Amino acid sequence: MSADAVGTSGTGGATPPRRERPTLATRRGPEHARIMGVGAWRPTRVVTNAEVCEHIDSTDEWIRQRTGIESRGWADAETSVIDMSVHAGAEALAAAGVDASSIGAVIVATVSHPYQTPAAATQVADRLGATPAAAWDISAGCAAFCHALAQAADLVRGGTAEHVLVVGVDKLSDFTDLTDRSTAFLFADGAGAVVVGPSDTPAIAPTVWGSDGSMWDVIKTRTSWLEHRGVTDPAAVEWPALQQEGQKVFRWAVFAMAPLALRAIEAAGLTPDDLDAFIPHQANMRIIDKLASQVGLPDHVAIARDIRTTGNTSAASVPLAMHRMLAEGQAASGGYALLVGFGAGLSYAAQVVVLP
């Protein structure tokens, strides 16, 4: 082969000019996002402390003193996580004045959908009429709603979706050991949902979040699904009920979440005095009150205490508490609310929002 032939590649001896590399197209959304509407679903069955104490050695007085819980709601066996999500989602859409066909994504925050796959969100989207919206579940325990809200706000601001439906839902009665004295009185069922869409002004502040995987076993299911593989006798393996080390969770929640809350307030460009409402995960009344004290919330800030009659509903607790505060006039539309979620993982997230 002659030197003249090198690099010609059949072009008559000349290397063709390289085509100018195009720039990838991008989407640009609105500068800001907001919560446009909120919805909720609560069980009709009210379970009192007295009923819980039929299975454990405890009393109504002890449960109230330790947790602030007087009663909780349990769904019936036929009601699924998907059913609960659809009811809450439909109410949120109606409150926002947004048709399901305008939803670009559905995010369901849950740890109690009994199928590893597919995600509950796909069926929620279909039943609400939001198909072909993108749909997925996230698992971040009791912090998951605040994580999902952060995702939704970024999707809207990035132009990926005009509107996003976020559902926090858990049916923890399916994963509660009624004979476990440390958890039987805590967990409950419920669903809360919000619609996130464009805003002319800042209405969802930057999210402050993180995790501490060194404490992963403080809140967990007792067993792995792998331990059930090949087992034909259900009595041979414990059901993967939830368990937690209460004292460790209490100390972590109080002393680690107060600095997180203050960082979220600072990220919003506010001070505690600027807040109108505090809506933390409804884990324990003593944790809620201690957090409010540690953050230095002034007396005018309304504090969500939905746990008293709702129990710990995990990912549903923040939107359920928000819904109740607005419905009962404890907080007003347009007010600044600090949301704080924390739980299994251990995971946590917080942000300040303008209430719808």
TrEMBL record:
Its EC number is 2.3.1.180. Pathway: Lipid metabolism; fatty acid biosynthesis. One of its GO terms (molecular function) is 3-oxoacyl-[acyl-carrier-protein] synthase activity. The keyword Lipid metabolism applies. Its main location: cytoplasm. InterPro entries: ACP_syn_III_C, ACP_syn_III_N, FabH, Thiolase-like. Residues 17-29 have a biased composition (Basic and acidic residues). Residues 137-213 form the Beta-ketoacyl-[acyl-carrier-protein] synthase III N-terminal domain. Residues 266-353 form the Beta-ketoacyl-[acyl-carrier-protein] synthase III C-terminal domain. GO terms for cellular component: cytoplasm. Gene3D superfamilies: 3.40.47.10. Residues 282-286 are annotated as: ACP-binding. It is found in: Cytoplasm. The active site is at 142, 281, 312. It catalyses: malonyl-[ACP] + acetyl-CoA + H(+) = 3-oxobutanoyl-[ACP] + CO2 + CoA. Keywords: Acyltransferase, Cytoplasm, Fatty acid biosynthesis, Fatty acid metabolism, Lipid biosynthesis, Lipid metabolism, Multifunctional enzyme, Transferase. Residues 1-29 are annotated as: Disordered. Signal peptide: none annotated. One of its GO terms (biological process) is fatty acid biosynthetic process. Catalyzes the condensation reaction of fatty acid synthesis by the addition to an acyl acceptor of two carbons from malonyl-ACP. Catalyzes the first condensation reaction which initiates fatty acid synthesis and may therefore play a role in governing the total rate of fatty acid production. Possesses both acetoacetyl-ACP synthase and acetyl transacylase activities. Its substrate specificity determines the biosynthesis of branched-chain and/or straight-chain of fatty acids. Homodimer. The last Arg residue of the ACP-binding site is essential for the weak association between ACP/AcpP and FabH. Belongs to the thiolase-like superfamily. FabH family. This is Beta-ketoacyl-[acyl-carrier-protein] synthase III. It comes from Pseudokineococcus lusitanus.
